[in-house]
C-alpha cells in the first residue's frame, strides 16, 4: 500500500472510528449460543486431550455453554498458555493481576480466567480494548459481546474496559498481547487511523507498568511479523524469549502464531 493510499485510508478510518465511538448504544444483551460438541474431535488423541483440559481447567460448564467456534478457540488458548507454563510463574508470583490488551470481543476470557487460576489466586483480569464499539454484522458491538462472556463467567474480578491502553494505570504482573499491531497495514485493514499506531509506546508502557516478578505474553501472526515485534522490543532494550511457532489440533489458523515472552524478574539481565 503506497503512502498516499495509506493516508487516505487512515482519514477514512478516522472518520468511521469517530462515528462508531460516539454511537456506542447497545441493541440489547448478546446471548451466547450453545451447540452440541458430539464428535467435534474425531481423532482419539485430540479427544483425550480435550477431556483432560476440561477436567484440569474446570471447563465442563463452558463445554455446555459455548458455541463450536468459541469452544475450539478457548481450547486453543488453553493449550497456548499451557505451552508457556514453565515461564509463567517466576519466583515470587503469588497472586495474579492480569490484563489483556486489544481484547476485541474478549471471546477467550474463559480460557484466561480458568488457566490463571491454576497458577495462583486470581485477583484481577481486565480486558482493554481501544475499538470497543466496533459493530459486527449482528448490529452488536465488541463491548456487547464481551459483556455476554462476563455474564456467563460471573466473577467480580473480571472486567472489560473500553479505553486506550496507554491510559491504563492499574498495576499488573501478567499481560497478554494477542496479535498486536506491529506494522501499519494490518491496523489500517482493521479500520483504525495511523495516528493510533504507536507499538513502541504500547510495549514500553506495558513493560514499565509490569510488576516484578511479571510476564508479558505476545503472539504474532507468522515469523515475519514476529521479527517486527522483536525489533520493537530490541529498540526499547527489552529482552525477550522466542518460543517459536505454536499450533494446536483444536484450531488451525492460516499462519501459525509465534510466541514471545518477556519476563521481568527483578534480577540482573532481566
From TrEMBL:
Q: Which domain of life does the UniProt lineage start with? A: Bacteria
* Name of protein: Class I SAM-dependent methyltransferase
